[in-house]
Write a structure and sequence with these properties.
It is built from no helices and 19 strands. Helix content is 0%, strand content 59%. The strands form 2 sheets. It has a 12-stranded antiparallel beta barrel. The chain is globular and about 55 Å long. It is mainly β.
Length: 317
C-alpha cells in the first residue's frame, strides 16, 4: 500500500456551510465535515504500522442557494449575490500501531484545521463584506478499524469527534479598517460526533471506495440552536499508472432533520449537495502529492460551493 493511500483527507477538513441572515442556510455555522472531504483515498483500508502525517489545503467558493436550488433572493433586491469563499488548511497525524481489535487493524487520528473565510452580500440595502479567520475545533478519531476480507476487499468503521475548542475569530471591521477579535469562535460552540462505515476494493491498480458518514451535533447552549444530523456519501474510482493515480470523486450530502432554535424548527434549513470532479496524485520517494476538484452540481438550502484540494502525505516513522 502506497503513502497516498493513507490520510490525504480522512474526513477532517472543515466545511463552508453557513446560515446567512435573511436567506436559506444549513447548520448554525460551518459543518465539521466538508462535503467530499474523504474522497480520493481507500477509506476502509489502513496503511502498514507507523506514524503518518498529512497536510491538506483547499479553496472553496460559491453562492447561496434556496430551498428550490436557485440563487437565494433577499427582499430588498430581486437579484442579490450572497457569496462565500474561504481557504482552509488541515494538518493531521495518524498512528497505526499494528494492533488488532475485534479482528481488525486499529488506527487513531488527530487533526487541526484553520480557516480563512470571506462572505459578501451585494444587496444595496443589506450590503456586507465579512472576513474572519481562526482555528477551527480539533478533530479526534480515537478508533478507526479496518477488516481485510480478501481478494482486494476491505470494510472499515470509526468515530471522529469534532471539539468546540476553536479560537475566537479575527473579523474584519470596515469602519476601523483592521481586524478585531470576534465575540464568537469561527469554529462551533457545540460537539459533533461522526461515525462512519466504508467499503473499499483494490485490485490490479484499481481502487473503488465508498464512505458513509453521519454528523450528530449537540446543542449550542449559548444560542439554544441545534443543527440537525447530516449524512455524507463520498465515492472514489481511481486507476494507478506506475506512480500516477487518476480518477473521479463524488459527494452526496443530505441533512436529515431541520435545525431547531428555542424549541422551534427552522424552515428551509435541510441542506443538500451533489458534487463531482477529477483527482490525481503522484508518489515521490518520501511523500505523495495529490489534487482534487469537486464541482457543485446541485445545492439546496446552503452555499453551492466548489472545492479545489491540494495536499501531501508522508510516513514519519
Amino acid at each position: 500500500m502506497t503513502v497516498h493511500q493513507t490520510i490525504a483527507a480522512l474526513g477532517v477538513a472543515c466545511g463552508l456551510t453557513f446560515a446567512a441572515s435573511g436567506g436559506a442556510g444549513a447548520a448554525e455555522s460551518i459543518t465539521p465535515l466538508q462535503p467530499g472531504a474523504t474522497t480520493g483515498i481507500p477509506n476502509a483500508a489502513l496503511p502498514p504500522p507507523g506514524l503518518y502525517f498529512s497536510f491538506d489545503t483547499d479553496y472553496a467558493w460559491g453562492t447561496m442557494r434556496n430551498n428550490s436550488g436557485d440563487v437565494s433572493h433577499l427582499p430588498a433586491d430581486p437579484n442579490p449575490d450572497v457569496k462565500a469563499s474561504n481557504f482552509e488548511a488541515v494538518g493531521a497525524l495518524m498512528w497505526v500501531p499494528g494492533w488488532k481489535l475485534l479482528g481488525a487493524n486499529y488506527a487513531a487520528v488527530i487533526a487541526q484545521p484553520v480557516k480563512f473565510a470571506h462572505t459578501t452580500i451585494s444587496d444595496p440595502l443589506a450590503a456586507a463584506d465579512w472576513h474572519a479567520n481562526g482555528f477551527v475545533g480539533t478533530v479526534i478519531s480515537p478508533v478507526i478499524l479496518s477488516w481485510g476480507l480478501g481478494n482486494g476487499w476491505f470494510v472499515g468503521t470509526g468515530l471522529a469527534i469534532a471539539t468546540p475548542d476553536g479560537t475566537s475569530g479575527r473579523t474584519w471591521n470596515a469602519m476601523l479598517g483592521k481586524y478585531t477579535l470576534s465575540q464568537s469562535n469561527i469554529a462551533n460552540h457545540y460537539w459533533t460526533f461522526e461515525p462512519n462505515f466504508a467499503v473499499t476494493w483494490m485490485k490490479d491498480g484499481w481502487m473503488v471506495s465508498v464512505n458513509n458518514v453521519l454528523d450528530f451535533n449537540t446543542k449550542n447552549t449559548n444560542t439554544d440552536y441545534w443543527t440537525g444530523p447530516i449524512y455524507y456519501l463520498d465515492a472514489t474510482v481511481a486507476k494507478r499508472f506506475d506512480k500516477w493515480n487518476v480518477g473521479l470523486v463524488a459527494n452526496y450530502t443530505q441533512q436529515l432533520a431541520e435545525d431547531r432554535q428555542f424549541g422551534k424548527a427552522i424552515a428551509d434549513s435541510m441542506a443538500t449537495h451533489v458534487k463531482i470532479g477529477p483527482m490525481v496524485s503522484y508518489d515521490f520517494e518520501r511523500f505523495t502529492l495529490s489534487a482534487r476538484y469537486l464541482g457543485a452540481v446541485y445545492t439546496r438550502n446552503d452555499v453551492g460551493v466548489s472545492f479545489v484540494h491540494v495536499g501531501f502525505s508522508m510516513k514519519l516513522l
